[in-house]
Amino acid sequence: MGKAAKFSTPLLCHSKLLCFSVLYLFSSLFLAVYFSFSTTKCIFRSSPYDPIQELLFSYPSSYGEHKYALPTTRSSCNSPVYFSDYWVALEEIRKLCSNFTPSALKYLQRTDESFGGNLSFYNRSSYFDHHDNETQIPCGFFKRFPISNSDQISMEKCHGLVVVSTIFNDHDKIRQPRGLGSKTLDYVCFFMFVDDATLNRLHFHNIISKKSKEFKIGAWKIVKVSSESLYENAAMNGIIPKYLIHRLFPNAKYSIWIDAKLQLVVDPVLLIHSLVVRENVDMAISRHPYFVHTMEEAMATARWKKWWDVNGLKIQMEAYCENGLEPWNSEKPYPTDVPDSALILRKHNVATNLFSCLLFNELEVFNPRDQLPFAYVRDKMNPKLNLNMFEVEVFEQVAVEYRHNLKKGGASVGPKLKKASSDLFGNGTLGKCKEYLLKMWGESHD
C-alpha cells in the first residue's frame, strides 16, 4: 500500500490577509469590466487618436477659470453613445464639407430700429410654412451687427465646422476645450463673442491687451461686439450668435453652440460625427433634465425669477396656446418639448436655418428664454426638423458645467421691472391655456 498523498497549502495562501487581498483584487477587476461594458452605462468608446498634449492657454491664478464646477450624479443612460475613430470621423466630416451644398434659404433685407424687426404675431406666423425658396425670411440683421471688418472677414473664412460661444456682461469665464485631436484646430474654428465689460475683465487679468487689434486666447478667437447698439439686455445680445450662427458664418457647414458656463471635454469633430452625421439628423440637442412640457418650463421661469416680467410670460404662453401649442404626448415624434439648449449641434441646411430664424423672431418679441418657444416653432414649422434629442447623461459626459461669475446683488437676467408675482396664473384663472393645462395634468375630457 502506498502512502496517502499529501497536499500542501499553496504558499500564496499561507497568509490569510494575502489571500483576501488577491480575492478582493480579482473581484474588483471583474466588477470594473462588467460595469464598463454594461449597455446601461453612458460609456464612450475612446478613439485611438493623438490628443493635444500641451496646454492650450495658461491663465493667471487670479482669473479662476475652473472655479465652481457643478456636480453631476447621473451615471447611466438608455442610449450610450460610441465615438468612431478620430481619423475616420475627421475624414468623413472633411468630405461632407467639401461636397456640401449651401442652404437655399433667402433672408429679408431692410433697415429697422430693432435688430430683428420686432415683428407682429401674424407676420411671424406667416413664415412658418416655407415651401418657396424665393420667399425671403425675416432673420435679424435689420441693423448692422457691430463687429470689426477684420473679424467679419475671419468669420467668412471659416469653412467646415465652427464652435461658437458668447460672454456678455462678464457673466462667465473663458474655458479652453479639452480632448482635442491633433488636427482639430486645423479644421475647426472657435469663436467667442464678448462685450466691453468682458474685455475689460480679461485686460484686468492681463490675459489680453486692449491695444491689440485682434485677440486670441488659446483655441478661441475673441470677437468684440459693441453691444450697446443692440439690445439693452445682455442675454438677448447673446441670442444673436446662438441662433443666427448660420448668418454670422455663411460658409460653415456644421456648428456647435456651447454656453460659456460649459467646458467642452470631447472633440467637436467626434460630437458632430456621432450625434448629427451618424444619426442622419439636422440638429442635436439635449433633453431637459426635469421637464417635458413647455408650460412646466414657463412656470419654473416665473417661479425662479429667470425672467421678471411674469405678465409678459403669460401673454407669450397664451398666444402659443391659442395658436396650437399642445403639451407633450407620446404621439409627438420627439421625446420631450423642453430642451437643455446650452449645447446645440447643427447641420446648416434649410430646416435648421429656418428653425433658427423663426425661433429668433419669437425671442426678439418676447424674451431670451429660448426653451419657451422651442416646441411651438418646432411643431408648427414646415419643412419639419429632423431632431436628435439625446439623453441628459450624454450632455453631462461631453461637457463640464460651471456656475456663472458670482457678483454682488446677483446677475441681471431680465429688464428692470418691479418684482412681479412668481405665479404665472396668479389670479386663479387659466385663461387661454386652460385646455393645455388640463391635458398636461391628465384632466381633459376631450
TrEMBL record:
<feature type="transmembrane region" description="Helical">
    <location>
        <begin position="17"/>
        <end position="37"/>
    </location>
</feature>
<dbReference type="Pfam" id="PF04765">
    <property type="entry name" value="TOD1_MUCI70"/>
</dbReference>
<keyword id="KW-0472">Membrane</keyword>
<feature type="domain" description="TOD1/MUCI70 glycosyltransferase-like">
    <location>
        <begin position="110"/>
        <end position="404"/>
    </location>
</feature>
<dbReference type="InterPro" id="IPR048354">
    <property type="entry name" value="TOD1_MUCI70_glycTrfase_dom"/>
</dbReference>
<dbReference type="InterPro" id="IPR006852">
    <property type="entry name" value="TOD1_MUCI70"/>
</dbReference>
<keyword id="KW-0812">Transmembrane</keyword>
<protein>
    <recommendedName>
        <fullName>TOD1/MUCI70 glycosyltransferase-like domain-containing protein</fullName>
    </recommendedName>
</protein>
<keyword id="KW-1133">Transmembrane helix</keyword>
